[in-house]
Amino acid sequence: MAKILILGAGSMSTAFAFPCIDNKHQVSIVGTHLEDDFINIIKSNKNIHPTLKSKIPNNVKLYKFNNFHNLLKDTDLIVLGVSSKGINWALDQLKKIKNNQQILILTKGLNVNKKNRYEVYPDTVKNFLLKKEIKNLKVSVAAGPCLASDLSNRLLTNVIFANKHISVVRNLSKMLSTSYYKIKCSKDVTGVAACAGIKNIYAMIVGTSMGINSKNEKDNKNLNTAAALFNQSITEMCYFIKKIGGHESTVMDLAGVGDLYVSCTGGRNSKMGKFIGMGMTYKKVKKNKMRNDTVEGADLIFDIGNKIVKDFTVKELPLMTSFIKALLNNTKFKIDKKFFS
């Protein structure tokens, strides 16, 4: 039995506790410094997570953030389940972890580091902690098609874990796999982690198909257009991932095609895309439709979008560069036949 400490009480981090506890591990979920009230709400509602609508198993322990550093002392696996905006804050909380610590990152995103290079979160975490003289870290990333609600209902889910030393994620797979939670292993950390981030941008782009010719908020799927956008998205993801050092084959697997498919069927990125497809600007959607929603794809655009449009031409990445410019300039996005080869 391992001691697993999950930082973040959001939907995905909470859902991840289910296969952990079903493997008879000792599991603790600690909310961030912003989630004290949220932890109170869960506990007062008989451990039912208000977003997942699922009951958290009673043997999963829930804590407020002030307990985090005490729990950190003897944990076997730290799981980072914060939002992309919270990744730097989370790193500050790990400054005193032990050598040889095992870390698994659920957070999806991509950084531009001080050398103006693209950097995936596993490298961000490792580089930060190495500067704190913490050695022999085992930092892995989880990605792939995984809706938190499905996982918390123990529906069949197939994900991918990546570490440059594949034995690390193979051990994690043995530790965390269940009859419903299947884990594939990869050495392509850059490809897996970057796919997890940029597919959120493409989920918005494919989502615009639902807004075309629609005068109300009812889904107008326009499946032919969605398929065209999906295919072009995968083509561009292959190009982008290869350029930053990942493998094209990773895009054609769970981290790319699989995750994008699931993200396009629903969720906040797809929802944002639908409204943009209806002719709204990003700021108008945020103000009138999704004021309190975190849209990870949009957050990533505002973090690294300027670098992407400088590094890649419209000919190389027609969908992504055009969509990024629309969001950065707060203009309307229109699907152009020139996007498709």
Please give a structural write-up:
The protein has 341 residues and is an alpha/beta fold. It folds into two domains: 185 residues, 3-Layer(aba) Sandwich (Rossmann fold); 143 residues, Orthogonal Bundle (N-(1-d-carboxylethyl)-l-norvaline Dehydrogenase, domain 2), CATH 1.10.1040.10. 47% of the residues lie in helices and 13% in strands. Strand 6 and strand 7 form a beta hairpin. 45% of the residues are buried. The model has no long low-confidence stretch (mean pLDDT 94).
Output the strand order for the largest sheet.
3-2-1-4-5-8-9-10
CATH fold call of the largest domain? Rossmann fold
Helicity level: 40-55%
- In the predicted model, the low-confidence regions spanning at least 5 consecutive residues are none
How big a fraction of the residues is strand? 5-15%
Distance between the termini: 53 Å
Characterize the biggest β-sheet. 8 strands, mixed
Instruction: Quote the average pLDDT.
Output: 94
What is the number of helical segments per DSSP (H or I, 4+ residues)?
Answer: 15
CATH class of the largest domain: Alpha Beta
The overall strand count is 10
Give the CA-based shape: globular
CATH superfamily of the largest domain: NAD(P)-binding Rossmann-like Domain
| H-E string | EHEHEHEHEEEHEHEHEHHHHHHHH
Name given to the CATH architecture of the largest domain: 3-Layer(aba) Sandwich
